[in-house]
Structures are given as structure tokens and as C-alpha cells.
Specification:
It is a single chain. This protein is mainly beta and 132 residues long. Helices cover 0% and strands 39% of the residues. It is built from no helices and 10 strands. Strands 4-1-7-10 form a 4-stranded mixed beta sheet, with no helix packed on it. The radius of gyration is 15 Å and the shape is globular.
Length: 132
């Protein structure tokens, strides 16, 4: 995380986050989120991994308050033909920074790394295939 020529809070930083490449249960997929954004809002990020077009009103995030340098636990979900939307918001707010669809097949695991695009959170996380 950090900026190439950054200093202080924006200086380049290295975070080691351990993968779990154990195959998920039959008929499921797994996601986790890693926060690599120096533009993380106060309180961190909340993450919703939901079927497409889900209204978030009344929905609790699977991951709450993810701060810079943290990796979440893996979230295991049944495979959906439509895939899942990964929605990243400021903690306690449902306005998305990220709203991307991921369509995985049974047994796949993905890590999504929230990064920056200049001075703001990128709408496109880096997708890492932990297990194909």
C-alpha cells in the first residue's frame, strides 16, 4: 500500500496476508477482501457480497470495519449462476466505492484487493485467484 513517493501515512508499506488455498465445500465459492487503500475512510470499509441488484437496506455487511493492511476472513457462499456483487462502502454507510460482479464456478477462491486510483479509492479491486 502507499504511494511511490509518499511520506508518513502515504509512504509505501508492506502487509503480509496469509492465503487459505483449501478447496471450499462442494457447490460453494469463497471471497475475501484485502484493504490496500491509503484513502480508507475513518472506521474502515464494510463489504457486502450479495446477489446482483440486491437492495442493501436492512442487509448487514459480511465484513465490517476493514482497515488499511487488513485481510478479512474468507466468506463462503453457494454458487450462483448470476455471480455475486462485491460492494465496498464506508463503515456504517451504504454508498458504494466499489460495486463489481464476480462470477465464480464451484471450488474457486478469490481475494479482492481494494486499492487507490490517485487520490481516491479505485472502483476496480485487484482480483487475485487464490484457487481456480
Amino acid at each position: 500500500a502507499g504511494l511511490l513517493n509518499g511520506t508518513g501515512a502515504t509512504a509505501p508499506a508492506f502487509y503480509e496476508i496469509t492465503d487459505n488455498n483449501t478447496a471450499p465445500a462442494t457447490g460453494t465459492v469463497e471471497f475475501r477482501i484485502i484493504n490496500g487503500s491509503i484513502n480508507t475512510p475513518t472506521g474502515g470499509f464494510d463489504v457486502y457480497i450479495v446477489p446482483p441488484n440486491t437492495n442493501l437496506n436492512g442487509v448487514s455487511p459480511q465484513i465490517a470495519g476493514l482497515t488499511l493492511g487488513q485481510g478479512s476472513s474468507y466468506v463462503s457462499l453457494d454458487v450462483l449462476q448470476t455471480g455475486y456483487d462485491a460492494i465496498v462502502t464506508q463503515h456504517g454507510n451504504q454508498l458504494p466505492y466499489v460495486d463489481q460482479n464476480y462470477n465464480l464456478t464451484a471450488g474457486q477462491i478469490r481475494s479482492l484487493v481494494v486499492v487507490d486510483n490517485g487520490n481516491q479509492v479505485s472502483q476496480f479491486p485487484i482480483e487475485l485467484p487464490d484457487l481456480n
